[in-house]
Amino acid sequence: MLYSMRSLLIAATFLLTAVAATGAARPDDRKAREQTDRMIVAHGGLERWNNAPTVSFRKLTGPAGKEKETIVVVVEQGRRRTYLDWPAEKSQLVSDGTRVWSTNWKQTAPPSFIANLDYYFLGLPWFTRDPGVRLAMAGTGRLPGRDTDHSKVRMSFDAGIGDSSDVYTLYIDQKTNLLRGVEYIVTHPGVVGSKSFIGPFFRIYEDYRTIDGLTVSTNALSVDANGRVSGTNEFRDVSFRMPFDEKRMKTPAGAVVDAPPKRKK
Predict the structure, then answer these.
(1) CA-to-CA distance for 242 and 262, rounded, in angstroms?
(2) Predicted confidence band at 3 (pLDDT cuts at 50, 70, 90)?
(3) Which of 14, 107, 114, 128 has the fewest CB atoms within 10 Å of its CB?
């Protein structure tokens, strides 16, 4: 299902995967489903998220204490079309749900990797209810540099949903039911080169804020494979009601279409 809801986010845009890929999907674990139900409620509920017409934010990223504004992101919910701007570099990226194109591209990673990367991390609690998602409890564990045990939920996918070997490990607060972190690997061919994957990495969520009834992390730490904080991701001006600019879906002259390279067999 190349154009399934998850494929629009992953297969056609950034192909981000998570730790311990397993292959065949399994039926949902009842306890995992209940745990993620509580997580979704803690973050504001599924109905409110689904009814938000757009998700938008300004992202500052970089080494701790040296963050700089890099991206302005607007995503249309439902069809999950996206446009991103790098004002300082005068770069643009657009995904219409089936294609990704860019102008004046300056980033190291390919556009198909970046297009919905931060949107997916921001909305991960709700994406556990996407079609084709499979959930299972994975015990308890601690995030790097933390001394608190969290409930771990394994999130995998049916065959044919993007890359069906993808697995995310969600770390959920046992008291508040908020999502506190996620463990993942990266397999996008345009990022990993000749390797099959790089990682595992972590994203650790901090500074939760409730906006229009939805609770999201506005500051997330990026942790590398050695457990070191490699940077921060700060989200400002988060909104769930910004009008979507339909004119941005027209491919401008000179735009370069990015098709993710095929994975080596």
Answers:
(1) 35
(2) very low
(3) 107
Task: Give yes or no for a contact between 124 and 145, defined as CB atoms under 8 angstroms apart.
Answer: no
In CATH, what number is assigned to the domain containing residue 35?
2.50.20
Tell me, yes or no, whether 200 lies in a domain. Answer: yes
pLDDT at position 47 is 97
Structure tokens at 144: 């790097």
Over the stretch 157-211, which tens digit does the pLDDT of each residue have?
A: 886 665 545 678 999 999 999 999 999 877 777 787 788 777 889 999 999 999 9
Tokens of 65: 């204490």
The answer to whether residue 262 is domain-embedded is no
Strands (E), the chain: 16-17, 54-62, 68-76, 82-86, 91-95, 100-103, 133-141, 150-157, 167-173, 179-186, 198-211, 214-223, 229-239, 256-258
Residue 174 domain boundaries: 5-249
Q: Which pTM was predicted?
A: 0.84
Q: How many domains does the chain have?
A: 1
DSSP class of 259: -
Q: Are 182 and 117 in contact (CB under 8 A)?
A: no
Q: Is 186 helix (H, G, I), strand (E, B) or coil?
A: strand
Q: In 3D, which of 209, 34, 233 has the Cα closest to residue 119?
A: 233
